[in-house]
Amino acid sequence: MDLVEVAPDERPPVCRIMDFGKFKYDKKKRLAQSSHTTKTKEIRLRPKTGQHDIDFKIKKAKGFLANRDKVQVTVLFRGREMAHIAEGRKVMEGVIEQLMDVGKLENSPEQHSRRMICTISPK
Fold first, then answer.
1. Which residue of 16, 101, 109, 111 has the fewest C-beta atoms within 10 A of its own C-beta?
2. How far is it, in rounded angstroms, from Cα 45 to Cα 90?
3. Whole-prediction pTM value?
């Protein structure tokens, strides 16, 4: 056990009997817990996805952005949906518009064969 001065500026100074090694370990552990590694979460949509499903996924994406994670929005095209890319772009623009209050656009929507992808990062 060690005698540790806790508040040296107080009159009289405050001291405490404690295990100083354990105190330093706990302090280091608390600092390590507060750090956050940014992850990329993905939201997948299709041009025919219903509005309620889109709203639910937007709610989840806002939670990810509030947790300081990036969100990758992906619109998948299957079969004849490739002929209606404008529909997928409308879905993508609507999602981006609703997420702009909690995030900012990192990568604008780009078409990669059968996928349209954009990335939104937290503010």
1. 101
2. 12
3. 0.70
End-to-end CA distance of the chain: 46
* Band of pLDDT at residue 30, cut at 50, 70 and 90: confident
Range of the domain at 17: 2-34
Return d(Cα 71, Cα 99) in angstroms, integer: 10
Phi/psi for 50 (5° steps) reads: -70, 155
Q: pLDDT of 66-123, one tens digit each?
A: 999 999 999 999 999 999 999 999 999 999 999 999 999 999 999 999 999 999 999 8
CA distance 120 to 123: 9
Query: What is each CA distance from 107 to 32, 33, 49, 72, in whole angstroms?
Result: 30, 30, 22, 9
Confidence (pLDDT) at 75: 96
Q: Are 55 and 81 within one domain?
A: yes
What are the structure tokens assigned to 49, written together? 């996805």
